[in-house]
Inverse folding.
């Protein structure tokens, strides 16, 4: 199927046809056919779970080339909070931001500032009664796409505000264009991404608005050079340039950061794609009463657990928590740290997420019902082991593939083995049966005796 951009790509040469990825995919978007994995584009949410599961490095994330920097007159880096957790103490955020300028960017704008702006707006909307729970955070693009594909009835529950990375990009471009007096299109804004889903959200945004980000570079890609530059960062940093975010915004890099920033009492924090699915299933069935806000992260540990980070997520979380504590010692309000916001009269962009169009079993409702009935009959024949040896994640998925003409019952090794056994018995019995003509001749010989 065409019409979808995906940052998660398959390297067919490295693929060995194992079934590790199909068992980990949260939307059943992968099949193994003819000895190679295949990704069903309309179901893929670019969460990167298949990359974690693949032992052969057959999945990878396609990000932008650093050559893209040359396409813009002025270049701004958007570092996420998770970037700070990649470096050993006593490395501070201001040192990391200075190193980014030495890297080749003209300026930096912290995603953590965008997080604070989104949190403040979310809090205001709840206080004014313009938001009513349950509301699901829009910060994690993998979760947003998961809801689109697997829980379409919950799309109306997604926070109608652009995520922190987009808000940071929107602010950075407007403020810098106003400061320098140059057109916004001459300013390139680049996100340093910890995960594949963020890349997809930039290239193929959902929510009805375009992305304000011009490109995405993986943290893994820039990490080696940044590490070297950090060793050279010395002296006083420019006043009021680095950093602008507080501990409140930086804490968005780990689970619980939104809860602390928004301050809602009835708030649920969930990280890890499997745990998120469990909670969304409960929410879909109206089993979670009294929860106003769901902070959800596809990666275990939040953004510090992203697949494009360098450092172990648990280690990075500890480092980030240390930075949060240090930044929280002398807190200033966002207005005090960022007076330009008031002058800009900034409004957080609104989004509206729709379910992703899906052709389930058939585009025609009658055809879909007929195929559903046929799939149920096939499922009754299948062993129910959900072993994945057929190339589908479970027996139900195989049954659906069969009615769509994408697989056969003999893809199931249990059914294939039974058919081979039955055929063997028939061949064995047939071996003991004489042809009719020989039987008559033998009878005649008996008569002659």
């Amino acid at each position: 199927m065409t019409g979808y951009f995906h940052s998660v790509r398959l390297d067919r040469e490295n693929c060995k046809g194992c079934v590790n990825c199909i068992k980990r995919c949260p939307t059943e978007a992968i099949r193994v056919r003819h000895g190679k994995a295949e990704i069903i584009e309309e179901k893929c949410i670019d969460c990167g779970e298949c990359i974690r599961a693949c032992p052969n490095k057959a999945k990878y994330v396609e990000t932008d080339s650093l050559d893209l920097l040359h396409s813009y007159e002025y270049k701004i880096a958007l570092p996420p909070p998770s970037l700070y957790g990649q470096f050993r103490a006593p490395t501070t955020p201001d040192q990391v931001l200075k190193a980014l300028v030495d890297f080749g960017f003209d300026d930096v704008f912290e995603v953590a500032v965008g997080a604070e702006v989104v949190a403040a707006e979310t809090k205001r909307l709840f206080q004014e009664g313009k938001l009513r729970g349950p509301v699901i955070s829009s910060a994690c693009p993998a979760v947003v796409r998961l809801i689109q594909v697997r829980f379409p009835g919950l799309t109306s529950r997604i926070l109608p505000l652009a995520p922190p990375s987009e808000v940071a990009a929107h602010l950075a471009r407007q403020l810098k264009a106003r400061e320098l007096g140059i057109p916004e299109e001459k300013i390139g804004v680049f996100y340093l991404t910890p995960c594949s889903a963020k890349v997809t959200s930039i290239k193929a945004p959902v929510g009805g608005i375009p992305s304000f980000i011009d490109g995405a570079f993986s943290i893994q890609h820039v990490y080696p050079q940044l590490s070297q530059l950090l060793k050279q960062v010395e002296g006083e940093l420019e006043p009021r340039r680095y950093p602008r975010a507080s501990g409140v915004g930086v804490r968005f890099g780990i689970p619980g950061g939104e809860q602390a920033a928004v301050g809602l009492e009835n708030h649920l924090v969930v990280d890890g794609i499997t745990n998120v699915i469990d909670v969304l299933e409960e929410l879909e069935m109206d089993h979670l009463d009294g929860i106003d806000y769901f902070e959800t992260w596809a990666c275990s540990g939040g953004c510090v657990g992203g697949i494009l980070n360098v450092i172990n997520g648990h280690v990075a979380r500890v480092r980030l928590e240390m930075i949060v504590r240090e930044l929280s010692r002398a807190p200033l309000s966002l207005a005090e740290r960022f007076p330009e916001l008031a002058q800009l009269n900034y409004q957080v962009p609104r989004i509206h997420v729709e379910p992703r169009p899906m052709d389930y079993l058939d585009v025609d409702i009658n055809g879909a019902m007929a195929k559903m009935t046929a799939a149920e009959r096939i499922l009754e024949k299948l062993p129910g082991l959900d072993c994945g040896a057929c190339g589908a994640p479970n027996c139900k998925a195989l049954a659906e593939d069969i009615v769509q003409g994408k697989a056969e019952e003999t893809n199931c090794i249990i059914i294939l083995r039974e058919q081979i056994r039955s055929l063997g018995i028939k061949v064995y019995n047939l071996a003991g049966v004489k042809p009719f003509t020989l039987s008559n001749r033998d009878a005649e010989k008996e008569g002659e005796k």
